[in-house]
Each structure stands twice: as structure tokens, then as C-alpha cells.
Write a structure and sequence with these properties.
InterPro entries: ArdA, ArdA_dom3. The protein is α+β, with helices and mostly antiparallel strands. It has helices at 2-11, 16-22, 33-44, 51-54, 59-68; strands at 28-29, 73-77, 80-84. The protein contains five helices and three strands; from the N terminus they run ααβαααββ. A hairpin with a 2-residue loop joins strand 2 and strand 3. It is elongated and about 50 Å long.
């Protein structure tokens, strides 16, 4: 819960009361945006791409696009890196 409140107040500027009301709306991945993008790709898209073509998919660019478009928001809390994976939804 600490990392969720940190993200909502520190990264998005919510007041504490508003952040507490939004906690259930936040989806956090424990890791950086590239790791989150890789998991998203594996879970949602990899099955649709033939094995011999998966090598050509650029996870780093995919993660970058997700961040630039506001879908992902990578942040630090303590010494750990987290990624909000539904940043556009909150």
C-alpha cells in the first residue's frame, strides 16, 4: 500500500484522502517498464506471433511507446523500481 500511496501522491500529485480513494484503481508491476512490457507482450501478444518471428519484436521500443503514450509510468519507491501499468486509467 505504501508504494501505491507514494505513486498517487508523489508522482501524480493526489492529496492523501483522494489517493486513498484511488488505491484500488492502480495496477503496479514490481519492476521497470521494460520488464512490465515484456510480461504484457508474453501474456497478451506472443501467442499470436510465430516463434520464428518473435525475435524481431523490440520490447525496448514497445516499453518506450507505452511510457510516452502514458500507459506506463515507471517510478522509484525506496531502492526499488515499480511501473504503474494503467497510468492512463487513473
Amino acid at each position: 500500500m505504501k508504494k501505491l500511496l507514494f505513486f498517487l501522491t508523489g508522482e501524480l500529485g493526489y492529496l492523501l484522502d483522494d489517493a486513498i480513494n484511488k488505491i484500488d484503481d492502480v495496477s503496479i508491476f514490481h519492476g521497470d517498464a521494460q520488464e512490465a512490457a515484456e510480461e504484457l507482450f508474453d501474456d497478451c501478444y506472443a501467442h499470436a506471433i510465430p516463434d520464428n518471428l518473435r525475435f524481431y519484436f523490440d520490447i525496448e521500443k514497445f516499453a518506450h511507446d507505452l511510457e510516452v503514450n502514458g500507459d506506463f509510468n515507471e517510478f522509484q519507491c525506496g531502492k526499488r523500481t515499480f511501473t504503474c501499468t494503467n497510468a492512463n486509467g487513473i
